[in-house]
Amino acid sequence: MNKKSIRYRPQRAIVPIGLSLGLLWAIFTFLVYPNLSLIHTTMMPQGLFDPKPILNIVASDRAMGSLGNSLLLGGSLTVTVAVLGLFQILVLDYFHIKGSRWLAIAYHSPLICNGMVLVMAYNFLYGSKGFVTALVPGLPTSWFQGFWAVLIELTFAGTSTYILFVRNSLRSIDNQTIEAARNIGAGKLKVLTKIVLPCLKPALLAASIIAFIGGISALATPQILGGPHFETINTLIYSFSQTLTTRNYAAVLAIFLGCITVVALLISIRIEKKGQYLSVSKVKTNLVKQTIRSPRVRIAVTVAAHLIAVVQIAPLLAVIGFSFMPVTDLYAGVFDPSHFSLDHYQAVFESVAGIQPLFTSIGYAAAASLVIVLLMLWIGRLITKQSNRWTEGIEFALQIPWFLPSTLIALGLLMTFNRSNPLVGGTVLTGTVYLLGIGYLILVTPFTLRMIKAAYAGMDGTLEEAAKNLGASAWSLYWKVLFPILLPLVLSVFLLNFIGLLAEYDLSVFLFHPFYQPLGVVLHAATSPEADPQAQMLSFVYSVLIMLVSTAAILFVYRQQR
């Protein structure tokens, strides 16, 4: 019996050792090596450090101008998103404003109509061939182009961070703290500025960092709404990456952008470690909405809240309406419901060419979301059960995509695997259907690991001990006791990853296979002035389908949180 046990143990050890080696290979091959290879190829093309690409970039007025535009956009978004986002969450949860249910629906619309769908909606509403541009006589075709157009679109898109995260911090404030301040004579304005806003400080600073990073790394919005005179660093990276002679300059700019992102995220991590400034009373009471006593201020806030709501939800409603309109009505600025039809929907579902982008994106998004959830269930369990330098190193390596913009990740993969590479068995991955899937896995790795690790850490250890005492095997313990507890969160993470990848553009535009274009690339192509009118109308159908999936996923996630 003992001899059999001794022989069996090495056999059992083969599986975890093999999995660990496979994990190390995947981390090095797809997370570490592409970035090191990109730096080596760019900075040391002949084996020695060559400062020429950096000096050429620094000496280029176009490159420095795009870098300045990105920093200007990021800094401006930090302010505009903070002002608008804070106003929205105060209107929803702090002040008593009429029509709060309608306002909540409108303010949540960026969670449903976002990314490439939202940019496309703004373009066809206010762009050179937009509905509003055609509707208003004498309005210049370029009136909604440049810095201000990009800033407005990204500002309204960026409020989703406040709705998702900062709003939770506001709701967690103990109302007893506010009442205590009121009892000692503090006015409502003083309570807001001295009690409420300081409690939100960590969340506000973290959200500001997210807005800044979103601004400096924006690609689709400046490409479509920036016009010919507003170019950002990411649009220049994309332009340089299209030719082999300038691809090294694209890599240098991507490294610049990566360095800026790393600094911003390090600041965010430092802020996060400071914790939350919230009340710690034993029995917390829910936040009670405050009434604005001044009639003038109350009317002004109410009007502003509803005007913002209309602007916020207009792109979503426009996309739905445009999907039923004939293309002639769209270009003429005519809104006539009697002309509505299901022709565009029929065109999507009745032809292979029409349905292929939808199936392509669903396939990529579903596969990447499923694979990453399964991997992170194992890795998250490993990290929480075995806290040592080995697992800490794995966790740090898997967080690398947090610190890198999508363009840098894409260029690293594109330039590393464009030739035979022994790390992947001598295969050339560039130009294949696999590289985009790998890129999607990299994008969603940090978020998935963070959520699943937090779920493991929050589980009651007594359940596991009780199951062990009853003689449950490790397999039965995990799948019959732990996994059912994790399942709601696992499904939520899967769905959030799925809807995030469904219309992804920034990475897809570099890595997609020309025969299998994902929805993000198709939607972007539809915004081109040279695009086929029928293709433009089909893009609205794709957008509606994306929003329906996003709505169902978000409703499911909210129900799981209750």
From TrEMBL:
Gene3D superfamilies: MetI-like. Its main location: membrane. Coiled coil: none annotated. Pfam families: BPD_transp_1 (PF00528). The chain crosses the membrane at residues 12-33, 71-92, 104-126, 146-166, 203-225, 249-269, 299-325, 362-384, 396-417, 423-443, 477-503, 537-558. PROSITE patterns: ABC_TM1. It is a multi-pass membrane protein. Residues 67-268, 358-557 form the ABC transmembrane type-1 domain. The keyword Transit peptide does not apply. One of its GO terms (cellular component) is plasma membrane. This is Iron ABC transporter permease.
